[in-house]
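Quick sanity check, Flavin-dependent thymidylate synthase:
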Amino acid sequence: MTDTPADDLKPSFLSDVTVELVKHSAADSDVLWAARVSTAGEQSLDELKKDPERSKGLINYLMRDRHGSPFEHNSMTFFISAPIFVFREFMRHRVGWSYNEESGRYRELQSVFYVPGPDRKLVQEGRPGKYVFVDGTEAQQELVVRTMEDSYRQAYDAYQEMLAAGVAREVARAVLPVGLFSSMYATCNARSLMHFLGLRTQHELATVPSFPQREIEMVGEKMEAEWAKLMPLTHAAFNANGRVAP
Ligand SMILES: Cc1cc2nc3c(=O)[nH]c(=O)nc-3n(C[C@H](O)[C@H](O)[C@H](O)COP(=O)(O)OP(=O)(O)OC[C@H]3O[C@@H](n4cnc5c(N)ncnc54)[C@H](O)[C@@H]3O)c2cc1C
């Protein structure tokens, strides 16, 4: 049986994703400490703040020459709320990532669905590997919003009907679409985040362009903004070296 209040059964439609930095232990000094420990031993922590230009240069050198492991000694945990189709792409990133996602078996899934906002380009032109996306017409935008919302309502009604009849959540959820919002904690380090950003964002400084789906890019952009505040020298070196993870 469902125990959801009637108001919560009305679907909500969102055009954006949520990214919150919930926990972190991440600073440029972690990179410097790790890089210098091999030569300076236990005294290396004292050296960090003595020469900022040297520190900046060292981070840039590590990035440029792809000495990657000093960028692993830090941790960032993000809360992310996004459509299931974003999580399917996200969880392909296996190395340097830990995930925990909400369960559709142990709790009733909430009726929150993704509908593209007016800025989301709707039409794909070109051939594989050479796609560009262009704005849709007003008629296409109206069609997308209307058909998605109708379809989501129908699917969620079917889900509720099964729950009300006593069908288990893990069975009933099969009718819900990938536009349903889910949430997860994702923990990474700067190196694994850079690899993710190199593949899942587009940027004028990228020397190896990628062509991510806009919605996972929206998540990536918000994660990058948080990371840049924590590790500004590392972030600047990432950009200066073509946004290729070391
Ligand atoms: C634009 C775009 C389109 C995509 N389209 C598709 C698609 O159509 N279908 C699809 O299935 N996937 C698709 N993917 C997912 C893609 O193939 C990767 O699974 C995803 O980007 C994660 O990258 P990764 O394996 O490098 O990352 P991680 O899993 O985090 O791995 C990081 C690095 O570790 C090394 N590594 C990890 N595992 C292994 C291993 N088993 N063997 C050797 N080295 C390993 C590699 O160097 C790898 O780059 C797409 C990705 C992008 C960005």
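Posting the structure with no commentary besides this: The mean pLDDT is 93.
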